[in-house]
Each structure stands twice: as structure tokens, then as C-alpha cells.
TrEMBL record:
Keywords: DNA-binding. This is Transcriptional regulator. GO terms for molecular function: DNA binding. PROSITE patterns: HTH_CROC1.
């Protein structure tokens, strides 16, 4: 699973989901889905998200390993 820090980064910038969606040229529903892990953004959109927050892609997205015991 790919986890993200979008909600946290938005809060730091004091941006709403609608604000971020407008900056990225996507719908607010897309941002909601990404934040709730219902949708994994394309690589292109992931890079755009990182760029709009002025951080590396690794600061936005991390790969959570499955715990297999």
C-alpha cells in the first residue's frame, strides 16, 4: 500500500481539498479519494503533488510493506 501525507501537507499550507485540486487541475473528489487511499495517483500526478508542495515525492508518498508473518 502506498501511504501519503497529503492531508498533513495541506494543513501546513492551510489549503482545502478544493484549493489543492484547483492547483493540480483535478477534481476535489480525486483529492478525497487519494487521501482516503481509495485511489492511487498516477506517477505523473504524484510528481505534480510533490511539486506543488515543493517537497520530494518521498516526502509525500511512502510504500508501506505488508506484514507477512
Amino acid at each position: 500500500m502506498i501511504e501519503n501525507r497529503i492531508k498533513i501537507l495541506r494543513a501546513v499550507q492551510d489549503w482545502t481539498q478544493a484549493d489543492l485540486a484547483e492547483l493540480l487541475g483535478v477534481s476535489r473528489q480525486a483529492i478525497i479519494s487519494i487521501e482516503k487511499y481509495k485511489y492511487t495517483p498516477s506517477l505523473e500526478l504524484a510528481f505534480k503533488i510533490a511539486k506543488v508542495f515543493n517537497v520530494s515525492i518521498n516526502e509525500v508518498f511512502t510504500l508501506k510493506e505488508d506484514d507477512k508473518s
